[in-house]
């Protein structure tokens, strides 16, 4: 999820939604009470009953409305990103521009990032921190490039892990291709390897993000001999929307990844490696589990993946001070068939089927998980638990201060080194049954450095 937006707006908006629900319930209860005509002590007795029922009804109505609001925010794509990063000034610093920003948890972390402004039409790449004043709550950073828009007029924007706009911006040629999916075609970028190895990388962005965030992995993929297909999928703003216009949190989007695998196979790929960020990680896990091509998925590289949606949703309920019972009610609305009319989902979302901590032993695809311990959006605990429960298949690497899906941005050299080393092992030529391993000494041979028989 980059770059993924918060599931809910701030507490004020939640309180407003709760207040509207409670006021609506109060109007309904009051109207019902006014229709009742009673006398004497019976009136007072009934008044007590109505008062108690009204209080319970108000509480139930408020909780239900809040749970529904929570559920719908999770599964409804946000078409407009909140520009929550304030720009204080743009100045000339040395050979280029520098940006003075209000200090936020994201803007004060070293690394290279994308900054989007003017409703997403403007895009700049932001580099190192020049100065930081905790007292004044400001941070000054270098502007490495402005790809679109007039940064000088920007007053607000949003921070992103997508530092580059397209393959050309990282010096790589690409092709604009279309993948046949349900409802039409989904645009994708194809970056070919200099020499085809027969293994393609299928790259899947996160919730509310775009294929731009996948550019962080393309150089590594290419150096390993893989062509990269950076895809779009339903409801991301470029691919066709699902009929219900709702996220399936991986339970439906995996079909678009399967379509991308089919596209690759038709063009010479023999196997694929899946890369996924945030919800893209959840989508990859579902693909490896459900796709008819699961046996052709050589490996997966997952960055800050959603391993257990129940954990993530509980975390966001807590962040927004939503009572845990109300949060669980919201989950029930998403996962139960009777909740479809309220949520707008065409089919329930099976959250239990996407709990890979509980299903750890069922994961049979070699998987590298990279996750920052301070991830504020998708807690890293389930990633660690999955690796602990299935060490044969899962390798787990932690980062610090990278927050959500920005591990590459904080330390690109380490990210690329880890992925290259791990994938290099996974992509090594497989031995046929009975074929000797060329790296192991055979009978009558001696390993390098091992003394031979005495003369």
From TrEMBL:
AB hydrolase-1 domain segment(s): 202-379
Superkingdom of this protein's organism: Bacteria
Region Disordered: start-end pairs: 426-455
Cited Gene3D superfamilies: alpha/beta hydrolase (3.40.50.1820)
InterPro entries attached to this UniProt entry: AB_hydrolase_1, AB_hydrolase_fold
Name recorded for this polypeptide: Pimeloyl-ACP methyl ester carboxylesterase
């Amino acid at each position: 999820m980059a770059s993924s937006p918060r599931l809910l707006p701030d507490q004020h908006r939640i309180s407003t939604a709760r207040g509207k629900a409670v006021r609506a319930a109060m109007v309904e209860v009051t109207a019902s009470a006014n229709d009742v005509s009673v006398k004497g002590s019976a009136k007072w007795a009934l008044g007590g009953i109505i008062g108690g029922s009204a209080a319970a009804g108000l509480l139930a109505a408020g909780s239900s409305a809040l749970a529904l609001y929570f559920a719908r925010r999770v599964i409804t794509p946000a078409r407009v990103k909140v520009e929550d990063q304030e720009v204080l000034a743009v100045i000339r610093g040395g050979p280029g521009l520098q940006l003075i920003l209000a200090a936020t948890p994201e803007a004060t972390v070293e690394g290279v990032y994308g900054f989007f402004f003017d409703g997403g039409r403007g895009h700049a790449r932001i580099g190192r921190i020049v100065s930081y004043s905790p007292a004044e709550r400001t941070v000054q950073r270098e502007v490495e490039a402005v790809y679109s828009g007039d940064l000088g007029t920007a007053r607000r924007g949003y921070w992103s892990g997508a530092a580059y706009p397209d393959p050309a911006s990282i010096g790589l040629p690409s092709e604009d291709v279309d993948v046949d999916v349900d409802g039409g075609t989904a645009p994708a970028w194809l970056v070919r390897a200099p020499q085809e190895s027969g293994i393609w990388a299928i790259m899947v962005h996160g919730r509310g993000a775009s294929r731009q965030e996948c550019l962080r992995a393309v150089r590594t993929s290419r150096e390993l001999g893989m062509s990269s297909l950076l895809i779009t999928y339903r409801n991301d703003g470029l691919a066709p929307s699902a009929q219900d216009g709702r996220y399936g949190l991986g339970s439906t989007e995996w079909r678009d990844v399967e379509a991308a695998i089919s596209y690759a196979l038709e063009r010479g790929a023999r196997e694929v490696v899946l890369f996924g960020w945030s919800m893209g990680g959840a989508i990859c896990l579902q693909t490896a589990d459900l796709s008819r091509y699961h046996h052709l998925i050589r490996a997966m590289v997952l960055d800050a993946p959603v391993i257990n949606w129940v954990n993530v949703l509980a975390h966001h309920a807590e962040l927004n001070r939503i009572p845990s019972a109300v949060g669980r009610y919201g989950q029930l609305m998403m996962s139960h068939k009777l909740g479809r009319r309220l949520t707008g989902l065409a089919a329930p979302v099976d959250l239990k089927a996407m709990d890979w901590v509980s299903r750890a032993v069922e994961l049979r695809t070699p998987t590298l998980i990279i996750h920052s311990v301070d991830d504020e959006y998708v807690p890293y605990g389930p990633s660690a638990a999955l690796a602990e429960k299935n060490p044969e298949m899962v390798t787990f690497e932690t980062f610090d201060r990278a927050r959500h899906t920005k591990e590459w941005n904080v330390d690109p050299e380490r990210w690329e080194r880890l992925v290259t080393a791990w994938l290099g092992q996974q992509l090594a030529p497989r031995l046929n049954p009975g074929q000797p391993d060329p790296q192991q000494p055979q009978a009558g041979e001696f390993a390098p450095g091992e003394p031979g028989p005495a003369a």
